[in-house]
Amino acid sequence: MLKDLTNEELVRLNIDAKNWQEAIRKSADALLQNGKITHAYIDAIIKAVQETGPYIVITKYVALPHARPEAGAIESAIGIATLKDPVAFGNKENDPVKYLFCLSAADNNSHLNALAELMDLLERKDFYELLDCAEKPSEIIDFIKNL
Fold first, then answer.
1. Burial (0-12, 13-18, 19+ Cβ within 10 Å), 96
2. Long-range contact list for 44-49, CB < 8 A, 24+ apart?
3. β-strands 97-104, 77-87 pairing
């Protein structure tokens, strides 16, 4: 479940980022600092986007940075980040990105239910409103726990 893969320590609000690479690095930093991924995992995300395009931009304003488990995922987790100012990732339909949900998947299956819950959240206007006005990570985590 989503509430099992995220916590207040994995939330970053109003990040300053000049470009999509910096947005990925800063949003993934929460996972790195909490032992969920390695530096190599972040590099793998950026390399994949450079090679295959902005496939991680999954809907309007939302990116789901992730890489293969073997690229440096230590433990399954989802980081939640909002950007102070949206940045372009090169996805004409869904740019600019303001919300990043950085996924660390330790295997190919254990995170799928959490992703399904996240997709449901991304259809809720009240979730985006919360992301825009939250002042503390606990506000977002409490919302997720009370679903």
1. middle
2. 44/68, 44/71, 44/72, 45/71, 45/102, 46/21, 49/20, 49/24, 49/89
3. antiparallel
Is residue 56 packed enough to be buried (19+ CB in 10 Å), middle (13-18) or exposed (0-12)?
A: buried
Whether the pLDDT of residue 118 is over 90: the answer is yes
Q: Which residues are part of the catalytic machinery?
A: 66
Residue keyed to tokens 């004409």: 92
d(CA 96, CA 34): 28
Structure letter (DSSP) for residue 109: S
- Which tens digits make up the pLDDT trace of 53-87? 999 999 999 999 999 999 999 999 999 999 999 99
Q: Looking at residue 115, what is its pLDDT?
A: 86
Share of the chain above pLDDT 70, in %: 99
C-alpha 52/C-alpha 35 separation (Å) is 27
Q: Is the bond preceding 96 in cis, omega lying within 30 degrees of 0?
A: yes
Domains identified in the chain and CATH numbers:
2-145 (3.40.930.10)
